[in-house]
Amino acid sequence: MRRKIPDKEIQACALFGVMDRSGRRFGGDIAITAIKNMKVRGNGLGGGFAVYGIYPEYKNYYALHIMFQNASREAKAEVEDFLQDNFDVVNAEEIPTNPEANVIDPPLFWRYFVAPQKKGEEKKLSDDDYVVKKVMYINTCIEDAFVFSSGKDMGVFKGVGFPEDIADFFMLDELYKGYIWTAHSRFPTNTPGWWGGAHPFCILDWTVVHNGEISSYGTNRRFLEMYGYYCTLFTDTEVIAYAVDLLMRRQRLPIEIVAEIFASPMWDQVDHMDEKKKNLCMALRMVYAPLLINGPFTIVVAHHGEMFGLTDRIRLRPITAGEKGDLLFVSSEEAAIRAVCEPDRVWTPHGGEPVIGRLNSREGELNEV
Amino acid sequence: MLPVVFRDAFLEGVRKIDELIEHASIEGDVAKIDASRLNHKEVNDLMRECVLKGAKKLILKNVCGQRYIGTRLHLPEGKKVEIEIYGTPGNDLGAFLDGHRIVLHGNAQDGVGNTMNDGEIVVEGRAGDVVAMAMRGGKIFIRDDVGYRTAIHMKQYMDKIPVLVVGGTSQDFLGEYMAGGMVILLGLTLEKLKHRAYYIGTGMHGGVIYLRGEVEKYQLGKEVGVVDMEEEDWKTLEKHVGEFSSYFGYDADEILAEKFMKLLPLTKRPYGRIYTY
To answer: Are residues B168 and B48 part of one domain?
Structure first.
């Protein structure tokens, strides 16, 4: 049975992302301090973080973070049966939380480190595709259960509250170190503030934080449904997470091309491009028109080895990028970057042009601080 | 059911003025404020208090993201003060500014001089989007580049003619829906003096844009045209570029030796026929 899924949701917010391009893992202090500096951009109805490189001891297993609304035991039992049937579960534990934290009515949070256990026809699927399919099953068919993080060696932590309260609730600064941190402070305008609706949105190790509202949500959602992605989290940003998974993981397109799809240039600008670029832009518009993201947006997207920021083509939401040594910053406001360091340089890209951070060294070289 | 929790984020924990005063020190008519522990309302409360206590100059240190700095300093007797800022102020620096002078030693964010009425803002750095939005009087000088929609719906009335001088270049939609006033874009940060901005003057129906360097015709909005520079225009530029140069250490004659384009709206009512026949 399929749960009822709402039609359209929109919202607006503060974003921050920091990546150490040398792969050095660091604590939550930078991201928490920076997002707190932009407190006026949120309203306490959603905060969250995505952190990469946090589970080195389980780095070959998918880390499923699952929230159970109303601490539902039925949902938990049903999810655990489902996981036993479809995965090898190598570890299951409640996600540590701080009972003193300033949050109200949190759901129950568990994490499961799993390896796919494919059977029959499903053996044809890649591990990643298999995990996407199972995550979609839980999110669409098991009442009160939401998988809100499903990548390897990374995790999303999010909920209702200001970001610093959510960080305190999950004890991020004490417990985790990562080489990419993205953060979000939410100001939901048209949709409920609820734990699953906070950012980041995640599928596999792809995460998205977003400021804006996606007026093409309906078109984007229907297109993604054809590829097996179902939007269940009552908010528009979810489509971007699935769109980057489709375009960047499954279709192996680089961000430079994805930026042209999400924020394709205006036709009168295309008219003045050289022939090669013009043909590319027109081809992308023909093939990927349903993934054009319309309406104002700034997003920060991350997956292992890469983080990027992007705005809509006429920049209706702000972005500032900064650098200090190996650190790359993407932020809604420059002051948030300056709240955590004196950057070597800051700049603001044109609308639709991504700011990209990539890991210089590969995973084997990741170092602890 | 989805749990919904409402909170007041904006004025949370704002302290009373007698608790804030320790963050300021007033000597003669100069007040120094350490903004590091103050939120945006507290900074503005404290600035106002210092001015009421007799300060004519305010020096703000450690500013980091506080918004609306200088906004609530309207004084009935018309007293004007100078505000010097170190750090990175938040959005809407000098919004509704009414005659005061702000000098920022650093970069500004979005909305500098939003609906400013009079006075002067000098930014020794770059600024974000919507600089001089709906500005209706006074002057703004930005040393480096500015973002999108600079001078959107800037306006003028009688002798109130706002002036914005940008030393660098602008991103798209410069002078969008501009209804009056003057924008001077100098391109000093460009290597080849070719501006990248698209949609310059889209919907513009008043005022003037002077642009040093070049843009292609297709970078302009449909509502503006390029006209020849006249004697009067150069005189105007000499005045404002001279002032700009004195603030940031440039040679005005060198700047004025380049070619300028003058952009004027083609009509005062570009959309007059959109909704009627």
So the answer is: no
Residue A158 confidence (pLDDT) above 80: yes
φ and ψ at residue A151, rounded to 5 degrees: -100, 175
B43, B180: one domain: no
Question: Average model confidence (pLDDT) for chain B?
Answer: 93
Q: What pLDDT digit, counting tens, does each position of B65-106 carry?
A: 999 999 989 887 888 999 999 999 999 999 999 999 999 999
Taking CB atoms and an 8 Å cutoff, what residues of chain B touch A269?
198
CB neighbours of residue B34 within 10 Å: 16
Q: Is B87 on the interface with A (CB under 8 A)?
A: yes
Q: Which of A334, A338, A341 to mutate to test the interface with B (most CBs of B within 10 A)?
A: A334
Q: Quick check: is B187 in a domain?
A: yes
Boundary of a domain, candidates B72, B89, B106: B89
A341 is catalytic: no
DSSP state letter for A367: -
Q: Per the CB < 8 Å rule, is A45 touching B5?
A: yes
What is the C-alpha to C-alpha distance for residues A265 and A211, in angstroms, rounded to an integer? 20
Scanning the structure block, which residue is given the tokens 């599928």? A203
Q: Are residues B60 and B195 in the same domain?
A: no
Contact criterion met (CB below 8 Å) for A113 and A91: yes
Pseudo-torsion of CA A311, A316, A317, A323, nearest 10°?
50
Nearest CA in chain B to A35: B65
C-alpha to C-alpha distance for A136 and A130, rounded to whole angstroms: 10
User: Looking at chain A, which residue has its C-alpha nearest residue B174?
Assistant: A314
Q: Do B9 and A194 touch (CB under 8 A)?
A: no
- Report the number of distinct structural domains present in chain B: 2
The answer to whether B129 contacts A318, with C-beta atoms less than 8 Å apart, is yes
CB proximity B217 to A under 8 Å:
no
The alpha-helical segments, DSSP class H, found in chain A are 29-37, 73-86, 127-141, 163-169, 172-175, 217-225, 238-244, 255-262, 267-270, 275-288, 334-338
Look at residue B10 and tell me if it is in a domain.
no
pLDDT tens string A48-105: 999 999 999 999 999 999 999 999 999 999 999 999 999 999 999 999 999 999 998 8
**Looking at the predicted structure, is the pLDDT value of residue A347 above 80?**
yes
**Is A273 in CB contact (< 8 Å) with chain B?**
no
- pLDDT tens digits, B183-211: 999 999 999 999 999 999 999 999 999 99
Q: What is the set of domains in chain A, with CATH numbers?
A: 12-362 (3.60.20.10)
Which among B42, B198, B215, B217 is the top mutation candidate for probing chain A, defined by the most A β-carbons within 10 Å of its own β-carbon? B198
